[in-house]
Specification:
The chain is α+β, with helices and mostly antiparallel strands. The protein folds into three domains: about 10-115, Acyl-CoA dehydrogenase/oxidase, N-terminal domain (Butyryl-Coa Dehydrogenase, subunit A, domain 1, Orthogonal Bundle), CATH 1.10.540.10; about 125-225, Butyryl-CoA Dehydrogenase, subunit A, domain 2, CATH 2.40.110.10; about 240-385, Butyryl-CoA Dehydrogenase, subunit A, domain 3 (Up-down Bundle). Helix content is about 50%, strand content about 15%. The protein contains twelve helices and eight strands. Keywords: FAD, Flavoprotein, Oxidoreductase. It comes from Gordonia liuliyuniae.
Length: about 400
């Protein structure tokens, strides 16, 4: 079957808005906030308001299909938006009000009533704890039902936008003895008594995005703030909350694609200014070594984008995409780190100097191969899906 890779017309406005923001808002202040870690980029406030206003029109467009049997909706729109904004600055993309990773979690598993109630929140995502990184099944934060409220206790680390968002989606267990089946996600207002931001982390990259430690000390939240069903289904495991990753991993992959495109464009400029033509009609072996490396990196980048589109399209069309989501994240995360580091290497002093953004992009890229599941975790998930193995069979 032929595949049409042209962008649906209804998504043109999404791409155009994001591209303008990336070029005219993000790029000019990218270095400023890289050097001013933890300082809030106030320039994003107006962008957040515009994104909020545009969301209504986007939802109406997403409800329509482009054919009799296919849909291009919220997931494809999200990856396009992430790609364009990350071309400007990944840290800013993660800092736009009302577009947090927690919002993607709400969109993935919330019921209709919750979708309406949380439509205007800015939600961070709190999964990782001091005792574990990529093993999400090791959640030890607890949620105990008390009347019509859950009481949450625990500590979360590496919470993106944790000090800026007004809500946080928290992963907690209803019963530690049951294992992963008891892990649920809760939407918790940051203003809730018992919720505190303990500290902000100092990081290698994405310095314009804050990364917080958030503690929950007998924090009470409405029982209907639990996303999904409160029932503990041992046979199903924690597939409900894990569905979040099927939506967010392609978005992270798209962020890597956007950052990778920025580095490729700058590397192309440097190579061509040095007098080396990039000729796709000539054998790679017959061209300058820098050109040959550029073409190889660009082909990897293209593959990352194709995998990302596929994973997003499958999500929009209600097709199981766990393997494809991990494939896109694994490929894009690995490709962008190699691409940006090679760009620094080939560009020599220009790449290592703060006169250009290449060295910043190399630092920013590393997180895209780590959060939402490391490279190793993605490969493990892919192997399980391809081989038909369970997590107990293949560790």
């Amino acid at each position: 079957m032929a595949i049409n890779l042209e962008l649906p017309e209804k998504l043109n406005s999404t791409v155009e808005r994001a591209r303008l923001a990336a070029e005219h808002i993000f790029r000019p202040i990218s270095r400023k906030y890289d050097k001013a870690e933890h300082e809030y980029p106030v320039e994003l406030d107006d962008l957040g308001k515009m994104a909020k206003q545009a969301r209504g029109g986007d939802k109406a467009a997403d409800s329509s299909s482009d054919g009799e049997s296919t849909v291009n909706g919220v997931n494809l729109r999200s990856v396009l938006n992430a790609r364009e904004l990350s071309w400007g600055d990944v840290g800013f993309m993660l800092s736009i009000p009302y577009q947090g990773l927690g919002n993607a979690a709400i969109a993935a598993v919330a019921n209709d009533e919750q979708l309406e109630r949380f439509a205007d929140v800015w939600a961070a995502m709190a999964i990782t704890e001091p005792g574990f990184g990529s093993d999400s099944a090791a959640v030890s934060t607890t949620a105990v039902l008390d009347g019509d409220e859950y009481v949450i206790n625990g500590e979360k680390i590496f919470v993106t936008a944790g000090s800026r968002a007004d809500h946080v989606v928290v992963w907690a267990t209803l019963d530690k003895s049951v294992g992963r089946a008891a892990i649920k996600s809760f939407v918790v207002p940051m203003s809730t008594e018992g919720v505190t931001v303990a500290r902000l982390e100092h990081k290698l990259g994405i310095k314009s995005s804050d990364t917080a430690v958030v503690r929950f000390d007998n924090a009470r939240v409405r029982a209907d703030n639990l996303l999904g069903t409160p029932e503990i289904n041992v046979k199903k495991g924690f597939g409900g909350v894990m569905q979040t990753f099927d939506n967010t991993r392609p978005v992270v992959a798209a962020m890597a694609v956007g950052l990778g495109r920025a580095a490729l464009e700058e590397l192309r400029r440097i190579i061509e200014e040095a007098g080396h033509e990039i000729d796709y009609d000539r054998p790679v072996a017959a061209q300058h070594a820098a050109v040959a490396e550029f073409i190889r990196l660009e082909s990897d980048w293209e593959a990352s984008w194709m995998l990302t589109l596929r994973a997003a399209w499958m999500a929009d069309n209600k097709q199981p995409n766990s393997a494809e989501a991990s494939m896109s994240k694994a490929k894009a995360g690995r490709s962008v780190t190699e691409l940006t580091n090679k760009a620094v290497e080939i560009s020599a002093t220009a790449g290592f100097s703060e006169t250009q953004l290449l060295e910043k992009w190399a630092r920013d890229s590393k997180i895209l191969d780590i959060f939402e599941g490391t490279q190793q975790i993605q490969q493990l998930i892919i192997a399980r899906r391809v081989l038909g193995k369970s997590s107990a069979d293949l560790k």
